[in-house]
Amino acid sequence: MAKSSSKFVYIVALTLFLGGLGYLIFSGLSEDSVYFMNVSEALAEDRGQVGQARLFGKVSPQNLEIVDGKLGASFDLIDKLEHDKSLRVQYKGALPDTFKEDVEVIVEGTFTPDGEVFVARTLVTKCPSKYEEQSKQMEQNKG
Amino acid sequence: MHLTGYVGLLFSLLAFLFLACWAGFSAWSKKENVLIFIERGQMVAAGGVLFSSFVLLVGLTTRDYSFQYVYENVDNALSFVYTLTALWGGREGSLLFWELIIAISGMIFVVTPGYKSLSTETKLFFWMFFLTIQGFFLLLLTGWSNPFIEIIPAPRDGRGLNPLLRNPGMIFHPPLLFLGFALYSIPAAAALASSIAGEEKSWITITRNWNILSWVFLTGGIVLGGWWSYMELGWGGYWAWDPVENASLIPWFAGTAVLHTSIIEARRNALQRTNVFLMSLTFLLCIFSTYLTRSGVIDSLHSFGKSPVAQPLFWSMILMLVITLMVTFLSKRTVHRTLSDFLSRQGMLVIAAWFLLALGLVVSMGTLWPVISQIWTNKPLGLDANFYNRVCLPFMSFLVLIFCYCPWLGWKGGVRNMKGLLIVTGVLVVSFVGLYLSGMTNVLAALTAAASVAAIVGIVLLFVFYPAMRSMRQSWGAYGIHLGLVLMALGIAFSGPYKVEEEFVLAKGESAMVDTYRITFTDLVQDGNVGDIKVRATATLEVHEGDKLIGIMVPDKRIYQNFERQQFAEVSTVPGLGDEIYSTLLGLTDDNKASFKVSVNPLINWIWIGGTLMCVVAFLLLRRMPKPGEDR
Lengths: 143, 632
Known about the structure:
The complex is a heterodimer.
Chain A: H1 4-32, E1 33-38, H2 39-43, E2 53-59, E3 73-78, E4 86-91, E5 104-111, E6 117-125, H3 136-142
Parallel strand pairs in A: 1-2, 4-6
Antiparallel strand pairs in A: 2-3, 2-5, 3-4, 5-6
Chain B: H1 2-28, H2 35-61, H3 68-73, H4 80-85, H5 91-109, H6 113-116, H7 120-142, H8 168-183, H9 185-197, H10 203-206, H11 208-232, H12 243-268, H13 272-295, H14 310-330, H15 345-372, E1 381-383, H16 385-405, H17 418-437, H18 443-465, H19 473-495, E2 500-506, E3 511-514, E4 517-530, E5 533-545, E6 548-553, E7 556-560, E8 568-570, E9 572-574, E10 579-588, E11 594-602, H20 605-617
Antiparallel strand pairs in B: 2-11, 3-4, 4-5, 5-6, 5-7, 7-8, 9-10, 10-11
Helix pairs in contact in B: 1-2, 1-7, 2-5, 2-7, 5-7, 5-8, 7-9, 8-11, 9-13, 11-12, 11-20, 12-13, 12-15, 13-14, 15-16, 16-18, 16-19, 17-18, 18-19, 19-20
């Protein structure tokens, strides 16, 4: 039988441990949460009031602006399902290899105060996986 | 061929389910004379899985595009190696590979002395669980995820493999993960069976090697995935806390926790129920990992896509959780033992397990937060990398600290070597102050780095103070793994917060500074038609530190045949055990300027060295299993 003081120490330690874990999780949740939205969901919001957000969508072939010799791009991000809904995105960093028209991207950042443009801090294209469905365009390329 | 392969799987499915029911019924009704038939039956049924896998392999190597699976994963230009690896490269093939490993594991386990030493009742319950797991996978393979679908007429060429995946890291990363996941089925089924049957022999001892091997493969898979991401994707990082990355890490935390708590059961016979629960939970989390990557429940950077196996996987997890909880709480414990003092090696193992399980919980919760948050809001909230870093990094630092002190405590309490304890404490304090004063002002990073240094010194001291350890394979294995871990921690503590990254556009002859290094763009060569590369632009970057040339980098940008609308970058590095310089060619302009991303990553290679060490030395922990009638 273990000493009761030993059991008490375990209980105190577990309480402290859970307290620390709870504090870290709570502070993380309150400070590091971002809205996950599709374009159509973002359009339904008061975008000027949305803080940090992560948007999911596809790069529209129209109005895609990439300046040679400069980093970054401006483009319309269209909803994955409702293709007539779009948002303007500005991004100033290095573009990933797989960035191109019609590719699925995830952008994280904030809207301008008027809600018209999404200023992306990060831009990532969906990483290819061995398990992905291949795109129809690749099929067409190969004839 | 297609039908033959499918029939092989169908035969195995029916046989496994029949044998599982038979084993379960026989165990409940105490009919023990059927075991030999069940053991032989599972061998024959496993043969069906082997046969079907062989059929698919033949389809791949002969590039028989009448197999939809071959068409989707291979093309005429793909090299032979990647054609072979397509066996586990696609969605259906990867599930078949999972099942193939489980089937082979069962064939091996049945002839081991450990299995033979179990009581007949435990064996029957083992087969009930183990064969049901196999039946479930075959249900997926014959229903929702069939690798033997035929295309008529057969196409002349396949779709091929994305060039980003043509990397040695990607040859080994997926199968290592699947090996880890699949091998956990043996200890999990043995734990549940032993618990129900009240087995006298310790399942912890009997499945020890399986548990270690599962952990080694899972660890290797995760580390290789990070290395591939760093070397192939060109973003300069190795871990993004993406749901798909997290998916493999969650079972790793549980599996690592059970490795620690099982030591307590092996030495003190305590924590019996905890270990049964954790072992089963680890395998359940492997299924959860597959669910996360295939269900589309969370939007990930990885385009795994939604798969029809999501629902069956979800319900199988619920069922397995119910069974695990029932077995854990309803089964009888053979011995009641309580834990020793908190400040003992045993106590520290428990604390380490708490930290590991908490990390698993945090990562699971963070990954599922967009789903969980929908309970109270219609705007799903997700968590970015800052959340994981904020919560996980302090816990990981504490784990390294625990390891600094654990070896110096007695097994049941007290300090076993005060001299060692004081030296390690001294090293910790001096390292921390030294690192802080030399500019490492991120307290958590400095503490982790100092704890890593103290832990390394501690390991050396242990082998100095206790000469007997030098001749013990187990000691080299256990402390080697922890040495690998602290080297990784050291690499993460430096390369994470102290990475310097710049993006710039240069004309030939121009230079830019990154940290203390001068990067000069000296040449650009364009060529093409090299293997399956259609066009390639290769830049030459000279790296100087002061006036000294320390290396040349040749990042390139290429377009592959069959992927003409997409450019791929190959990164180039000046490798080093201190700073590693890393470059990516981002693009070219019409006036022959080029844009680059260059970063200086301090101590990053220690992550790969530490990870490799962890996996390799773990083999030293494997040991001969006790023969029937022989106790350890």
